[in-house]
Fold:
Amino acid sequence: MKLFTRYMARRFIEPFLAGLGLFALLIFLGDLFNRMGALVKSPAHLTTIIQYLWLEVPYWGIRVIPMATLLATLIALTGFVRSGEWIAVQACGFKTKEFWKPLLWCALGVTLFSFAAQETILPACYRRAERLWRDQIHPEWEWDQYGNIAIVGGPGEFLEARLFRPKEGRMDRPLLEHVSGGQVASQLDARYALWDEASGRWVFHDGVERDFSGLKAREEPFSSRVSDLAVPPRRLIPRERNPDEMSLRELLAYSRGVRRLGLPTLHLSVAAHRKLSYPFANLIICALGIPVALRLGRAGKPVAFFTALSVSFLYLWVIELSCALGDGGVLPPAVAAWAPNLFFGACAALLLSRFQD
Structure:
């Protein structure tokens, strides 16, 4: 049985790797053509653009893993039927469920790999790619200014400002709060603040420092005060962080910080649940592909390819639709993220129940 398991795993892995590369390449090229105008006009060096494009590859690779999983399942089983091995293993006394179980074990391995990559490789690459896009390839920050900002400056640092000019490195009416143990420990409240490149700190001018650590709040006016805020102007631009550039742990911490600022976090809750649910799509789509492949019987690889493409796009479309309903408050975050898996998982279980013997 171990020999047969290794054999089925090999039949799964080869088309999985081929499908992963093909699907990732197709979607990557589509995104590349969509950004071609900005890339051609970009002032960035060619090596920067190439680095950006390379860093985009893990994002699309992880996104299409379920498609590759389904393709591998279909090709492995249809080839098994087409070669006559299906009849041979049944003649040897194998039950139907015994020869598709190795595929589910492979899909479980893909699920674990997908989650690990989503928590390590994807955030690092996506964060770096977005930084290159914003700072060098398409630097919109150079002409933007922002009013009434409220952002997380760093661990335990919350910043508000009436007006923020990133290019000038200036904030008007900034208020910097340091939080410890869920309580505001101190504040810097000033008329304006300037970024000091030499010290790598924001310098607050014409303000007051408040200390709330004692039994009684204390205030100390100042004309100039170097703060602990060491985030450069470009990094303080108040754009919401994309969940893809954070691990699950980072996303939960970021969500807590946003909640302290009184900003909505519903979409972040949906994203957190999705980070848990999305990798399991590989296991479910494999279970769904097994009865589909047995129905296809002796169909060739082109039929398997287009079937995988159709079913995968339907599955991923339902995931996107459900998460959009969650972002809009129509569905609770947990339901929005897990409902597609539960629905397609139930369909897969029902279909597999007919192929147990």
